Fold this protein.
Amino acid sequence: MGFFRSDAAFRRRLVRLLLTEFVWGVGTFFVLPTTTVPAFLTARGATPVVVGLMAVTMGAVPLLFQFFGRGVLDRFRDRRLGVIAMHVPVILPYAAIAAADVLLAGHPRVMVGLCIALLGISQVAVGLVVPVWLDMISRIIPLEWRGRYFGFSSGAFALGGIAGSSALYYLERLAGVHVFTAAFAIAACFFATSISVFATVTVDADVFLHPAEFPLRVRVTAAARACGWRTDFGRLIASYSGVLLSAALVPFIVVYAMDGARGLGYPASVFARLTVLQAVGGAASAITLGWLVDHHGPRWPWVGATLVIPVVVVLLPYGGWWPILAACTLLTGVLGTHWSISAPALLEFSPDGDKSAYVAMAGIVAFVPASLGPLVYGGLIQHSGYEWAFAVAGVAGLAAAVPAMTLKRRSREAVVRRAED
């Protein structure tokens, strides 16, 4: 049985979901938090510590609010419309940043603070959306196809990223110093278009039906119980935390490339080329990793993801030769679409039932490394140099590989059944 089933309704739903991811990817790569946003803040005079604060806002803040996502969604009578409405506060801050950058052109420090605050509002909304979105997908896409679905959806997102980052590359040449203002405005338009596409997806009402929700304390306790070291879910969360700690270095790569005193000394316009390369790396890895997850389980693909940053930090000091920096950026693209592995892994290794609580618990556990990492790297870079930040990130990635290698393999029977499908 092929991935594209004979069910016409399923095919239409699948194509529209993939188109949703593609268009969202176009918008995301106009304002990528690992290239465009740190370059924007640096151009407005932000220090590495401030860039680290931005990375905390973008990477860690949403993790704190994931347990509340289902409660917010359940307030809507029509859950599908609720998912759409929950994206509105994700999108509007990007349009507000574009407008503020014009109005506050003479106040760069104020603009830096306002940008981080608005991104924080957007990421809080992202934190509410993620668990209910993944729970919805887990009910739409059967287990044996999730690897490929997340591979294809991550690939669609990354292909959209190639389109968006390529457009950004030419936009930078045309708009010059106004490129950032235009990028935020265009991103908001593509985000709105993406959700408009999702609005055409038919999602049965029973997809959102669950037994009556337990009190928050009970849900947290049940999810925490699944995080013990003896469970595959618990070891996955431990590894996930290490990956987030190591991946927190990625926004500083563009800063390192642009730093003429202690870094590689590339011109500021390099951020556009790096954005394109991250998109290409994400697209190339997403479909391949999704296929591997379906055919062999998430264990070894996830181990590979843990080793990305250790490889990158060994190569980066030689990034003055462009092919090396390009290779490092292509590798970081794997982390840009890591949910092609992490999402099916979280859904597969978590207990049965409402998956949103377990996705939320993964976020809560990962909050500490996701929030400390950018601040630690920013402080190390500012006061001790890039070498120390590279060393800490590399060790974190190697440590994340240890629990990853203990995850159970998918049973031979499941692999054979998948091959027959």
About this structure: The chain has a mean pLDDT of 83. Residues 108-140 form the longest helix (33 residues). The chain has 20 helices and no strands. Residues 139 and 396 are 34 Å apart (CA to CA).
